[in-house]
Every structure is written in C-alpha cells, then in structure tokens.
Amino acid sequence: MKNALLLGLAAAVLFAVSAGLSLWLNQPRTDDSTANGTSKSTAKKAATTPEENRDKTSNPGKPVVAPTPSGDASEPIRLAAQLQTELAVIAKREQEFERQQELYQVVIEDLRHEMEMLQKHLKQTAGDQPKKPDVPTLPPLAPDPAKKAAAESADATLQNLRLATGITESMQPENAAKIIEQLAKSGKTDAAVQLLAKLNPRQSAKILALITDEKLSAQLFERLLAAKAPAKPSP
Q1: Quick check: 174 pLDDT over 70?
Q2: Does residue 10 fall inside a structural domain?
C-alpha cells in the first residue's frame, strides 16, 4: 500500500510538470501568431482606399485588446513542491507508526517475561508449603436403639393419625363423636385430642356437641384449646 501511494503521487507530480511545460511552450507560439495577425491586418489597412480610411476615422471600432497568457509557468513548480511536502509528511508518519509498533512489541515481551517469572514463583511457593497431615476420619456413631425406636413409633403414630383424620372427615358427625368418646374412655385422650385438632374447627365443634358425656366433652374441649394455643417463648 505504501509503494502504490508513492507511485500515484509521483505520477501526479510528473503530470503536473508536463502540463506546465506544455503551457509554457505554447505561450510564445500564441504571441507569434498574434504578431503575424497584427502585421497582416496592418498591411491590409495600408491597402485600403482613402475613402475607407476616412470612414474608419469617422466611425472608430472597438479597441484591440492583447490576449492574456493562458497559464503561469510557476504553477507546476508549486504543485511539485506541495506534493513533495505531502510525501515527506506521509513518510514521517509511517516512520512514527513503525516506531510505535516496535515500542509496543517491547512492552509485550516485558509483560510476557514478567508473567513467566510470576508463574514460576507461584509454583515454587506452592511446592515449599508443608503438607497437612492426614487426619483419620472417625466412623459414624451408631444410632441409639431407644431413640431410633421412639422415632419410628412417632412416625407410625403420625401416619396412623393422618389415616384416622381422613376417615373421620368422611364420617357423619354422630359416628365420629362415638369414636372420639371411645378413645377418651379407653385412656387414649391424647390421640382423641390430636384427631380433633386435625379436623376442621366446625366439624370438631359438631363432634364435641354430639358426645353424650358432657364432662368428657368439656375435658376434650379444654385439651383441644391448649393444643391449638401458640407456644410461649422461653425466657
């Protein structure tokens, strides 16, 4: 691209110089032709009759104006100098660009060298650190049989309670009241209260109202309120 630009500018300079020279060479010919034309017209004027001279004297025509030169010989020289100046500026910019590229390359090489040194230092530091001793892992403790049995029993009770709740909800309130009363009289008051707590409040109220033993119904109602009461925060 640089060579093509230089060739184009050189061609433009040569074209401008040739055009200026051609104009300069053609200018004397124009003067000669003008002089020849003037001499011919003078001779023609001399050959005219006195009457024609008197007519021309009485009616003078327009004055003859000398032609101005069609070009200036210094213009091509000025264009050539301007093109040479522009070529010098372009060459200087290219030199600066090449110098900047060399500077960037040096900076990149320095950064690459520093990165390599840093990586080596990190590897050396990691190799110098002492290894931590292997701590033997203890086997997991066996679960307490009593706690395991209690948890399994609680899960079974919860599943049974869910099953009983579903059955009770599908019953008529009268039949559900008989079942709750039998549970309470057989010593399973907690199970009866939990079952009532799982039911809809309106359905629980209907069941308590249908229990024949009023004292038992009141006890179950109190236990139900205590079960649904929010737990107080510990001090």
Answers
A1: yes
A2: yes
93 and 22 share a domain? yes
Residue 201 has which token pair? 């409040």
Q: Which residue has the higher pLDDT, 89 or 179?
A: 89
Give residues with Cβ within 8 angstroms of 149, minimum separation 6: none
The pair of three-digit structure tokens given for residue 109, joined into one six-digit string: 């090489």
- Do the beta carbons of residue 71 and residue 14 sit within 8 Å? no
pTM: 0.32
How would DSSP label each residue in 69-114?
PS--THHHHHHHHHHHHHHHHHHHHHHHHHHHHHHHHHHHHHHHHH
Question: What gap in Å lies between CA 215 and CA 222, rounded to an integer?
Answer: 11
Q: Is residue 134 part of a domain?
A: no
Tokens representing 226 are: 């205590």
Between CA 216 and CA 151 the distance in angstroms is 31
